[in-house]
Amino acid sequence: MDAKTPGQLLTTLLKDRGWTKRTLALVLGVDESVVTRLVSDKRPITAELGLVLEEIFTIPAERFLELQKEYDLAMARIAFRPDPGRANRAQIFGALPISEMVKRGWLRVENPRDVGEVEGEVARFFNAESVGEVEFLPHAAKRTQLAVNATPAQLAWLYRVRAIAEEMLVAPFTPAAGRAAIEKLKPLMGAPEESRKVPRILAEAGVRFVLVESLSSAKIDGACMWLAEDAPVIGMSMRFDRIDNFWFVLRHELEHVLCGHGRSAPILDIDLDGRDSGEVVEEEKVANAAASAFCVPPEKLAGFIARKAPFFAERDILGFAKTIGVHPGLIAGQLQHQIKRYDLFRSHLVKIRSSIAPSAMVDGWGDVAPVGM
Q1: What range does the domain containing 46 cover?
Q2: Do 266 and 257 contact (CB within 8 A), yes or no?
Q3: Quick check: is 149 in a domain?
Q4: Is there a single domain that holds both residue 100 and residue 18?
Q5: CA distance linking residue 286 with residue 284, whole number of Å
Q6: For 14-25, what is each residue's pLDDT tens digit?
Q7: 267 in Cβ contact with 256 (< 8 Å)
Q8: How many distinct structural domains can be found in the chain?
Q9: Would you say residue 359 lies in a domain?
Q10: Distance from the Cα of residue 8 to its chain's centroid
Q11: 261/344 same-domain check
Q12: Per-residue pLDDT tens for 327-345?
């Protein structure tokens, strides 16, 4: 029975038996008009009716119901009108933490449930002419390559960093100024409160330094990007508020700046605490090596470990930190990484964000940067 619809199947069955529609109506105990509508596919076959027809014609009810489903879907496809906006909304509301972005002041909407208002703000936030041109949408006609392989949430964080950086006034950058800044930063690593000087030193060197709290789903540590040939930007999330992580990520991003990384597309650094996990590209290896050497010179750390392993006494860590002029937390962080014991020395990993935030451009942790207001 090569029937394409449930009505065609019923017509074939009636013909094979020599039945009229009236005969089937009498068997079913219904009006003949009901059978007429069934054979003309104007009335659907329900699961209950399918079982009745199975009993009458010994054709599995599933056969009737499968044909009904296929017929319904075919008719729906004929009537269906594609809506590109629906696909956009699926991407925007499914991939972006809209509520969090509204709460953080990134999206200025009166009613987060007003889809049109939210879409307009998303377009504005991503510097797009319309919501369909937001670059992470698969069919967006224009790409800025602001972030390669970034998730929508990570891309949003980068856009926020960039928007804040564009409103900052700093000196023009030169590699010599960048190297000089690093020398000025070294003496600050002995105490958390000294980090308050970091934003000024970087600004004088032509580096825009921005602290933006990460979106909950972004898991970003830092980023390096360029607004122009002489305008590098370093964004940090302070996702881990620890003195060792701060100095490692900062020096890591500074190495990207000195090497000119991130000019064509931003360098986005994720999970630098697990920097040896998986395959690491050459740019990241270079930045990791520079950051490790800056925090604790590797030859001195290797010598310390060789002398003191496997037991590292408190007085030894304090003495080593004093000898090389850094906070004990930097020794603790490097030791944890080297010996893979992240449960040790945690008392030295002091918080630092409260020391640096008052002198930095900050967005998050209750503060909203005055961007475009």
Answers
A1: 6-79
A2: no
A3: no
A4: no
A5: 5
A6: 999 999 999 999
A7: yes
A8: 3
A9: yes
A10: 52
A11: yes
A12: 999 999 988 888 888 888 8
